[in-house]
Amino acid sequence: MASVARDQRRRAVLSRLASVYAGATTALRYRNDFELLIAVILSAQCTDARVNLVTPALFRAYPNAAALARPEPKDVEPYIKTCGLYRSKAKNIVAASRKIAELGGRIPDTMEDLLELPGVGRKTANVVLAVAYERDAIAVDTHVFRVANRLRLVRAKTPEKAEHQLMKVVPRAQWSQAHHWLIHHGREICHARIPECPRCPLLDLCPSAKYFLRARAQRASRAPKAKVRRPPP
Ligand code: SF4
């Protein structure tokens, strides 16, 4: 009986997310599969908006894998310096471009082959598979991991476990969209430190809401009371 209720609640969560975030898609700007891959690598621990600021100049200087395979990483660093972890990202995007250039410029289309590219983990590979190749895939980044756990769509300790549990809970046809719904919800409302439960459209369906609402009430009760000015006589 409990599992029937749990399944119904999960279905209701997915349907609410689908209606609130209908049409949600990646905020990264790219013109082809190569630019998508590089932008996703750069987006690790960086906002999409920041990545969108640096990629136009980067892709003007290095418009394809063959071009980005030629420089030394230190030559690429100035283009991506504001992205965070720029030294390792410069190394990774140059090394990945060298491998892609060896493959004739084609971005691999399997998880196994994508994982061979430097700087590419399961999340990046799943984004490329879903967006570039329109495959059914759920990329689990920090937002998806946090929100899916809070909404109890999954109970997972690692992103990879969350990915596999989400694949069981979310209908296959919605895998790619579910990734965008959860990311948008995490960015806009279900923030890592202080989620905005009072204005959350999933409040009535979220098992974690009571903990965060209690913490919010405790914070409010500890906040210094504003001084009440006496009205002028
Ligand atoms: S109710 Fe709160 S914890 Fe639950 S999904 Fe919404 S913002 Fe996140």
Provide a quick synopsis of the model:
The chain has 233 residues and is mainly α. The chain is built from twelve helices and no strands. Helix 5 packs across helix 6 (86-102), helix 9 crosses helix 10 (159-169) and helix 9 packs across helix 11.
Please supply descriptive tags for the structure shown above.
Endonuclease III, domain 1; 233 residues; mainly alpha; 2 domains; 0% strand; binds iron/sulfur cluster; globular; Endonuclease Iii, domain 2
Commentary on this structure:
The chain has twelve helices and no strands. It binds iron/sulfur cluster. The site of iron/sulfur cluster has 14 residues, from helix 12.
Order of helices and strands: HHHHHHHHHHHH
Number of helices: 12
Helix content: 55-70%
What molecules are bound to this protein? iron/sulfur cluster
How many β-strands, per DSSP?
Answer: 0
User: Which shape, going by the Cα principal axes?
Assistant: globular
List the SSEs and their pairings.
Blueprint: H1 2-20, H2 33-42, H3 48-61, H4 65-69, H5 73-80, H6 86-102, H7 111-114, H8 122-131, H9 142-150, H10 159-169, H11 175-188, H12 209-222
Iron/sulfur cluster binds next to helix 12.
